[in-house]
Amino acid sequence: METTLKKNAARLAILSVGIGMGILFIASFASPTHLHLANAQQNKTLIQSNDVEENNKALVLKAFDTLFNQRDYVAAEGYWSPKYIQHSAHIEPGREGLFNLVKSSPPTLKYEPGTIVADGDFVIVHGRFSGMGQPVNWIAADILRIKDGVMVEHWDVIQDEATQEQSKSGHPMFGDNFPNPSENE
Asked: Coil, helix or strand for 179?
């Protein structure tokens, strides 16, 4: 909604944007003499939102490295809520289910993050799990909900990584290179 009160007077714009589970309202006030005030408030709102999202992305990357690559279970507890909700079909419930899955994996397990995006309390990271003792690597889109600086909920979409011969597009599913089949042995 945008309303012009008078010529050369003020303009008020209100924008509502759905973010995650809530709605963000941004109000912008502009006038020829006070334009800098409206822009400063709007930029402050966007900067605060970006800081939260950047912090959430950093949290997920650090947590995944700590658990999957370093296998530091004590440190990893600080990143996952004790009430962690697991929606993945192949992982037992809760934080313990995830940690037990990693503990039962071969020591060659490796996680490589790729593209990561955040929207409010939600983070999606596209990554590769290799060295799992499976015939092929997994490419996963992990979706995490962050609350109070810890991961509280998780969903994933997992696909076997295609070789160059299997790829109809001719492009790798992750990164710039196709997998080396010997990585999985």
From this structure: coil
Say how many C-beta atoms besides its own lie within 10 A of residue 92's C-beta. 12
Domains and CATH numbers, the chain: 2-49 (no CATH), 51-184 (3.10.450.50)
For residue range 91-137, what is the model confidence (pLDDT) as tens digits?
999 999 999 999 999 999 999 999 999 999 999 999 999 999 989 99
The C-alpha R_g of the chain, in whole angstroms, comes to 22
Please report the sign of the dihedral spanned by the C-alpha atoms of residue 54, residue 56, residue 57, residue 59: positive
Q: Which residues pair with 127 in a beta bridge?
A: 113, 140
Pairing of strands 2-4, 110-119: unpaired
The pTM for the full model equals 0.72
- What CA–CA distance (Å, rounded) separates 133 from 106? 7
Q: Do 116 and 125 meet the contact criterion of CB atoms below 8 Å apart? A: yes
Distance separating alpha carbons of residues 124 and 118, to the nearest angstrom:
6
Q: How far apart are CA 9 and CA 130, in angstroms?
A: 61
- Whole-angstrom distance, CA of residue 8 vs CA of residue 6: 6
